[in-house]
Specification:
The complex is a heterodimer of chains A (about 800) and B (about 375). Chain A is an alpha+beta fold and about 800 residues long. Chain A is built from 20 helices and 38 strands. The longest helix of chain A has 25 residues, at about 225-250. Classes of the chains: A alpha+beta (about 800), B alpha/beta (about 375). Chain A: This is Piwi-like protein 1.
Amino acid sequence: TTGSQVSSGLQDLSLRDRGGRRRDFHDLGVNTRQAMVHVQESKTGFSGKRIKLSTNHFRLTSRPQWALYQYHVGYSPELEARRLRSALLFQHQDTIGRTHAFDGSILFLPKKLDSKAWHSNAGFVTELLSRTRNGEDVKITVTLTNELPPTSPTCLQFYNIIFRRLLKMLNLQQIGRNYYNPSDPVSIPNHRLMVWLGFSSSILQYEENIMLCADVSHKVLRGETVLDTMHSLHSQVGEERFRDACAKELIGLIVLTKYNNRTYRIDDIDWDNNPKGTFRKSDGSEMTFVEYYKKQYNIEISDWLQPVLISQMKRKRGENIQGSVALIPELCSLTGLTDKMRSDFNMMKDLAIHTRLAPEQRQRELGRLLSYIQKDDNVQKELRNWGLSFDYKSVSFTGRVVQGEKIFQSGTMFDYNPQFADWTKETRSLPLIRAVPMDSWLLLYTRRNQDVANALLQSLFKVTPAMGIHVSRPSMIEVDDRTEAYLRVLQQRITPDTNIVVCILSSSRKDKYDAIKKYLCTDCPIPSQCVLARTLSKPQTIMTVATKIALQMNCKMGGELWSVEIPLKQVMIVGIDCYHDTVSGRQSIAGFVASLNQTMTRWFSRCVVQSRGQELVDGIKACLQTALRNWSKWNKCLPSRIFVYRDGVGDGQLNTLVNYEVPQFLDCLKSIGNDYSPRLTVIVVKKRVGARFFAETGGGLKNPPPGTVIDTVVTRPEWYDFFVVSQTVKNGCVAPTHYNVIYDTSQLKPDHVQRLTYKLCHMYYNWSGIIRVPAPCQYAHKLAFLVGQSIHREPNLMLSDRLYYL
Amino acid sequence: MDKNFEEEFTHIIKFQPPLYKQRHQFVKDLVEKYKPKKVADLGCADCSLLWMLKFCSCIEVLAGLDICANVMKENMHTLSPLPVDYLQPSERSLTVTLHHGSVAQKDPCMLGFDLVTCIELIEHLEESELKKFPEVVFGFMAPSIVVISTPNSEFNPLFQRVMLYRHPDHKFEWSQAQFQSWALETARCYNYSVEFTGVGHPPTGMEKVGFCTQIGVFVRKHAQTGESVQSEKPTEAVYKTVFKAVYPSLKDEKYLQNAVISEVIFTAQIIKHRFMSKHKEYSDDPERKSKCQPSMDCFSDYLGKLVVVKSMEPFVSGNEVYIPLATIFSFPKVNRLCGTFEKLRKLIAGKVTLSSDGSAVMLNIEHENEEN
């Protein structure tokens, strides 16, 4: 019972901490390494050049023999009210001490109580006597139930709670999971944005030490209420499209309220309700919103006609209580960015100035946080009382930079500067591995874009011969700038011979793009390329643009660009990523991409579309089966090794993956045949991690070069995991990608798994350079995104052997 | 004072809403009536009354005092400004401070308050403290209004359980006569008038026992004449400040300036957006485009400039759109924030790109190309 009690107790603790639910974001207690014998001794690689790195991890130091004592507190007679229980217990502060954490039944103390009595069936018991104001005597029994070593999961969770308390003591504001400093905001009035600087923190058991991983975090807030946004939407789109526009813009966003310190997610808008509507209070009485906010918070709601926002409450204290909260738009402020804002180049540029911090800057900001902690007396006192302290200097150690990969293209092999992780220049005007001719193709454009269409065509004629792509004259078709006009032409003019359709769009209106993509991915499976007229309008860049488009189209038709050396034979590589459509229908889409050939230049792509509540994995199983069938068609045998790179796994979902998804993969392989037992490796890919690494060079800090592998010190002892920095960034800090091998029967050395992973980051054809994740993950992402954003159902399988979604 | 125990005995006699809420509501009503600017809560305990009062828009200074720092610390963060308070600073200023100390001691930080509340406080005082209490609150702090609430012992027999006091920490509980005589004497001594009331009505037929909580509202008889009383006051601070929060307010130049700049630029963007979409209808025809744009020559021309200053219309010159400040000032939100045109100019000086004569906000045309 103690196990479940511990976690439920801590959940309550965190409830008090924040009033929200808490998942185990750190996937504590998922011990996957122990099942993999070949990495018991060591999970580190060896190849490459050594590099001195520092990081944003700080060692936690505690007094010797540090332990956390967990007590169960019982009352006789039984008492219900938590407040009363706590008040009665702390009448005995002399005994209990000032430093404690108590949730009503479980008490944590940094010290062991002097226990008078030993009960054979209950352990050490301290009995206390309190008196209620009714004059009733209550016996309190404090029983020691557990002595937790510093590395136990409970203790780690506990450290995190304590650390959050400290941040709160520093007057930082909690928004979501992180803490922010509100007193020194950066304001970007052009876009009505405000940026708060803050910190994300987590304390975990790493390879050798318990460490604090702290990172600078930026919170984008908006200086307007939801009602303001609704007003400006109304003026932009007019009455007719107003409700739709509101739903698109607002649903899924996180809001802060004027009256409490909580965040809510907007899940729906109730247009039939308004502030004069009533709701039922917990005591059963009914009240209008207007009255409630006036009475409770002295807030006058000025607009009585606004609709009401609905936020679903997720879980409450571990139980599944579904409920919803109604919020008044006028009293809610928006946080974060919408997709629309993200696609606003100027806005993102203005934001990046403030949020993209270079390595040195980032470490400086982090140093500021630590100095707050170090200098604040109250914080130091709290730390001392628990017997905890931090090493204020970040951890440094050695990583490795693995050898750069050679790129092969049509029989030639070439080097490029590994520092830039980009071979755009080097491959220019080289023949492709496989060039698909464009013998029969359509070019659609509107009247005003006729010149642009011609310019594109001429440029294509110029750039394609060197690549080895044969381009014939297309059917040039002028269309009206209406969605129906495009679709009609497509229906009429596409023949079985059509290789590809190119549409020049005059605006980035999403509905037109969606309609074209939907038609050409489902009803009429033909590769298609949409180009914005604006991108073609500048004569000085048109050649570059045409080159890119030519390559992209070639891939969409099943062409191959370049390859790297893959020493493993008979391997199938799988990439999976998910897209969650939060706006319409709440679908989830899993993109599934599997290699088809030895050189990893051809891929089989499918996706799973499913509505809320369904399990993703069933669909993935079916994908794996068809992928294996296709692989065997291409290679005349089944693969002997399968690598699955699984992206799109949320914090706290690792357990589900290990216990549910991996067994399903194995099941699926078993179902292929009795004598078929390939070696399977499942690797969880995580792009959003708190860890940052800095190369220490010449007294300064720089981003580590591409190919930097980290598999010591900051990895987790219970996992077979490593970090790879594969890409480069122009601004700010490069984010490492975390790879967690959760299942592995490959018997490969960690070094080889790391190298293979890095090689695959070179294989994404939409970018002539190294990317953040293995190519199949990025392909899977692209596919899931296209389907989730535009198509909303599974594309036609006729296209599945081509990268039609690039 | 202590909600837990109150809750417990509402089992027997149920008050709806709970008694502590009724006491808080009583104070809130009083605040609504007298609109005090500075309010202190003595014996503020878990800060729940202060939390409620922070939403009262007339209050600019809130202070709490308690003998137990821990109980204040438990919930003091509820008194901190919320993120939204920073995003949309309020017109009023508000400072909330918590002090650790005794009501039997004088500290200058408690001077100058309009309203002092002592809700369920005095019955926790030792005899010696109670003796000093009137001098500290009425003599030293000397606010315009003092509210004191305390249990009415005559009500106690209605609770079924046998007990001496309602809370183990109570040092006494007074009958109505006892409280009133103490209150009248105190009022007389320090020149206050006092009225008695209470919350928690007795059951019908038992009206004689009076309210469950008896309340005295003391009002100082005449306006304080200068600093006369304060002259002999010790100035040494004896309380320890355990919490202080200054709410962002538009009264603070820094926040006002941010708000104004942000509003000015945002308003300018709106005007530009409207103007450009109107402008665009013409701009497809290159000839008309040049017509409706004042040329560079025209602009540098003195006459041209004069016309521009007078005009409230935005105009384009080169790569810039000029939005006259006067137009921006005519927007209600900007107007309300700044009050005067001069103030507007002063606040945005150096922070917003203006035309050379300072009459218009300059925005780059480039930004517009995103939409369609």
